Amino acid sequence: xxxxxxxxxxxxxxxxxxxxxxxxxxxxxxxxxxxxxxxxxxxxxxxxxxxxxxxxxxxxxxxxxxxxxxxxxxxxxxxxxxxxxxxxxxxxxxxxxxxxxxxxxxxxxxxxxxxxxxxxxxxxxxxxxxxxxxxxxxxxxxxxxxxxxxxxxxxxxxxxxxxxxxxxxxxxxxxxxxxxxxxxxxxxxxxxxxxxxxxxxxxxxxxxxxxxxxxxxxxxxxxxxxxxxxxxxxxxxxxxxxxxxxxxxxxxx
Amino acid sequence: xxxxxxxxxxxxxxxxxxxxxxxxxxxxxxxxxxxxxxxxxxxxxxxxxxxxxxxxxxxxxxxxxxxxxxxxxxxxxxxxxxxxxxxxxxxxxxxxxxxxxxxxxxxxxxxxxxxxxxxxxxxxxxxxxxxxxxxxxxxxxxxxxxxxxxxxxxxxxxxxxxxxxxxxxxxxxxxxxxxxxxxxxxxxxxxxxxxxxxxxxxxxxxxxxxxxxxxxxxxxxxxxxxxxxxxxxxxxxxxxxxxxxxxxxxxxx
DNA sequence: CGTCAGCTTGAAGGTGCTCAATAACCGTGG
DNA sequence: CCACGGTTATTGAGCACCTTCAAGCTGACG
Lengths: 253, 253
Prior knowledge:
Chain A is an alpha+beta fold and 253 residues long. Chain A folds into two domains: 3-138, Sandwich (Jelly Rolls); 166-248, Winged helix-like DNA-binding domain superfamily/Winged helix DNA-binding domain (Arc Repressor Mutant, subunit A, Orthogonal Bundle). Chain A has nine helices and eleven strands.
């Protein structure tokens, strides 16, 4: 079977033949959509020599708040949470990352947040030093990272409005909407079905609420018929527009 | 008087003689610390042909939420607030910008937040199109913008913890600390004196509180002696460490 | 069938909000 | 100089929403 001609994704970069690619990368989920999409075959070969793919179980810690981290990574599958804590243990999730996001903070030795697997996660990690060198030479790579930083900044600001000004009911609706659009970014349908990748305590930490309040609001939301939830995690949204209407934020839309 | 030899700032870039610089830029506050520091003399000349400096009064709107903006700008003086609103008018400030920050959202035609002068502000604005072209050709420029985006992302995440998990007292202390370190980033002293660049309603919108709560907490904080406040805006902090201790967030410090 | 983690539900209490009145500040003009 | 209106900030009383604490429920797995 001729992969080059048949796989629609490969058409994106005809300059690179699969035969030149490291085996590790050939069938990789992040090969085109992640940062590796802007690396040359030569760079991929070099990087792949120091690359390892890991599975990380849900709830496992990947990096600690304030820790110096020696490796970057791409997320290939699953959901990763970024969280900050106060000295007395209160916790706030400050970001969620999905495949094929890049994990790491360029130009700074340490993250000032903890990194933890929310679900089972598959990552592809590699040494900082090598990528840092690529960044300084390949403007395309820095551009790609810049775009991700800007997207995360937009999302953080959107979430600041949620944390600072929305009621518990609106926060929970905002969360479900957020997951609905991130779980399958390609989907266009007005009807969605997905699994919530977080447990209630994570949702609470993301929303700045307690698990009890989250639970109560989910119950209420379910009673309105806007969402159907079974087995605690499985969500069906018959009409995404209706959910969106509960959390409308813009004057002009 | 020989500016080139006497002004210590010019030593930073001996490759560019002031005589080649646009007059507009020669004594500019953002010439070295802002993004212009990475532009070539040639780029500065081209940019300066389409550049204007404005004064903007406090509380004046610079751009609306969702509006398409045709110009970027550098902040030369004053404080700018970025804010988002819900449909029913609740407001949240999602960022503050100080000189010599770059103002604008690269790679996206519109901001999804409003931009407003918090104090009287002086800016230097120029067309998007020209800078966008420079960005695609000058990796240094994109790097500089990337660094600012990452810094803003770090600050947003820090603020998400404040909004999601801190009490009113801690939020107000966090705000004063934030302003103390931003008002004069160079200062190292443990004693600080500055003017709060926001009025109470802005502080409330930044902290996700009401003005009444902000006012009450400021009164309480003043009574502890950790800060002295006169004329509503003038703050004296005799011991910044003590203020920092009220809002400690990290396990490892 | 018992145990344990995760989730839901209930009752009571507290933090911050709403509504309302008072006070300080500031530029303008008599 | 003080009087004046408008804006901004403080203070008070009552209440609502979310939290806290506690008990019960559900499903997975031995």
